[in-house]
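Deliverable D4.2, example record:
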Amino acid sequence: MLTVTENAVTAIRTLTESPQLPEASGLRIATDASAGALTLSLAPGPQEGDQVVDASGATLFLDPEAAVVLDDKALDAALDADGSVRFEVAELPVL
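Output generated by the structure prediction step:
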């Protein structure tokens, strides 16, 4: 299962607690086959087949392929030089 750091939890909560978004909103991570990458977007709810992850009140929706890709990963977030949130996926350390 995807691990979500405290920094990412804070960033996701900040993004999804906007008054313009429905209460059940979350960050959706999907695969983009044409680009060979993952895409992130704010979503009002999960799409059919999405895995819903609640990480300390931060809600993520993972499309089925993204859920497989991210199964053994960690999602982190940091502010870049412009003050924008940048998400990063990392390998979990082997214990």
